Fold this protein.
Amino acid sequence: MITRNPIPDFGLESSNPLCAGISNGTIVINELSSNQEITYFLNGVKTEILAIENLESGKYNVTAINEFGCEKDSGIILEEAEAISVDIGADLNITLGEEVLINLISDIPNDSIISTVWTLPDGQVINGRLFSVTIKGEFSGILSLIITDKNGCTAESSIRISIKETEIEVEIPNVILVGSSSNNLFTIAPNPGILLVKECFIYDRWGNKVYSVENSQPGSFAWDGTFAGSECQQGVYVYKVLLRLASGDEKLFAGDLTLLR
């Protein structure tokens, strides 16, 4: 009498990765044989899990071997998801204070986009669901956008925003008259072309520093002709001012300052 050992039987179900380049595909092994001790292999690697997750796209082979050494093979393909894309245009060179509307263009409809993350040239991050932003010519830097669709897939685009080089008129006093109602202070007037006063130093004729301020906004500080609570002598002083401009460049100004009483 010849006994024929049973061949293991199983079926396969699968779900493809939802996003291009992301390993979130699934293969499920459905056992169809009863009363058999079956060992499963996925691409030659033993698996005790019948719902195998976090798989990338590609070809897979499932092998089942029972206690009699009988086996069955079955192949399945997880298809690569189509990548989504987004574009916010070309690099821009704009004038100081100019406003430009930036729109996103994507190969998926807007109602499939569940979130946007815009990072502005000054580092500000805007989260939400915005399909356009208005950029004002204040900072040079990178404007970037990340979109996320309903499946959790992401796409990114970025451009460089540059501020055109223009001559900035910086108002720096050369005379201060203590007690005057108009020019009694040394200060750097607010200017849209100036982002930051990195350094402002004033020295007397012997080279002693009588005033200093660093990393301050224009118009937020002033020298009143005193040092350590005492009035400075009338005479000629020297200033050195280092500014960070809206273009991202730094510019040094130096000159004489006459103090009158």
In short: The chain has three domains: 10-78, 86-163, 175-260. The longest strand covers residues 235-245.
